[in-house]
Write a structure and sequence with these properties.
Layout (H helix, E strand, L loop, with lengths): L5 E2 L2 E2 L6 H12 L9 H15 L3 E9 L7 E10 L2 E11 L7 E5 L2 H4 L9
Antiparallel strand pairs: 1-2, 3-4, 4-5, 5-6
Length: 122
């Protein structure tokens, strides 16, 4: 699943080679970057996302370029049915790195986990 999530740099599971991660770590020490996630961290995050988004049905809605994000980011609204509840227009932000594959950069999980009556839930 971690091959499906990532950013312009590639899938989340590919945290980069040792040299790339070393530069990220050094940058994080001075507030200029972030640490490379460990395999265990990525695995736990993917497991949690899978648990939250296990669905009965889905429908892909509107798609548009995501303003204020990188050139390759698209916002896709997805209607989900999870355990009999309907969640409308859950935003998925997807990117297309140079290799041409689409990756999920971000999902508004709060629309599913913190939804209240009248906030997209039916």
């Amino acid at each position: 699943m971690a091959q499906l999530f990532g950013d312009e740099g590639g899938p989340a599971i590919e945290t980069g080679n040792a040299l790339g991660c070393a530069f990220k770590r050094m940058g994080s020490w001075v507030g200029l970057g972030s640490r490379c996630p460990t395999f265990d961290q990525v695995e736990l995050e993917m497991d949690l996302i899978a648990e939250i988004l296990t669905h009965d049905a889905y429908r892909i809605g509107s798609k548009a370029r995501a303003p204020g994000r990188g050139r390759s980011t698209t916002r896709v609204e997805v209607d989900l049915t999870i355990r009999g509840r309907e969640y409308e227009r859950v935003p998925f932000y997807v990117v297309q790195p140079d290799n041409g594959r689409w990756l999920i950069q971000e999902i508004d999980l709060q629309r599913v986990t913190g939804a209240r009556s009248g906030s997209g839930v039916r």
